[in-house]
Amino acid sequence: MPRHIIFDVNETLLDVAALDPFFERLFGDARTRVEWFLTLEESWLTATVIDRYQPFGELVQGALTMTGRRRGIDVTDAQRQELVEGLKTLPPHADVLQALQSLRDHGLHLTALTNGSLDTAKQQLASAGLTDCFDAIMAVEEVKRYKPAPEPYRMVAERLGITTAEMTMVAAHAWDIAGAASAGCQTAFVARPGKVLNPVGIQPDIKGDDMREVVEKILARQA
Question: Most exposed: 42, 74, 146, 212, by fewest CB within 10 Å?
Fold first, then answer.
C-alpha cells in the first residue's frame, strides 16, 4: 500500500455540519446546509467540465444565493461573508486527530488536498488543530481545475516527486474516489453521515464507516 496518504478536507476531515445553526437562522431549516453543499459541488463540477475556473469563495457564495432563491429568500452580502468565514473555523470530526497521528506514528507521509483555496485550507487546519499532522497542504487553485479532474491529483504527485500510483486518496465523496482512481491513485472511502458510494461507479480499494476503520485498514496493508 502506498506510503503517501492524501486527504480531502471539507466533510472528510472537517465537520461541515457545524454550519447547521447558520442555515437554521437563515432558512429556518438546518437541512438546507446539505442542499447548499450539493449546489456548491454542482458549481465546481460545472466549472471543471466547461473549463472555466472560478475561485472557490465565489462558488461558495453563489451556491448560497441559489439556495436562497429556491426559497424566495434574498441572501445579503453579510450573510454570504458569514458563511465564508464560518468555513474557516470548522471543527474536525471526532475521529480525525487520533487517526492522523496514528498514520504519522507509523512513518506515513500525509498531504491535504482541497478544492478550497490554499489560504482557507491553512486557516481551517490551523483552527482545527491539525496543521502539524501534515507534511504538505495543497489546493486545486494551483492548476485551476477542481477535483475530480485528474490535474489536482497529478499536481500532488509531481510536487511530492512520486507517481499517482504511490498515493492513496482518502475522501468521503464518491466523485473524489472516482477522480483519484482514474488518475491512477489508490483510494479509501470514509462513510461520513449521508455519504454513500455510487453502486455503478468506481469502487475504492478501502472503505470504512469512520476514519478509525479506514486508517486501521491502511496500516494493515503496510505490514
Answer: 74
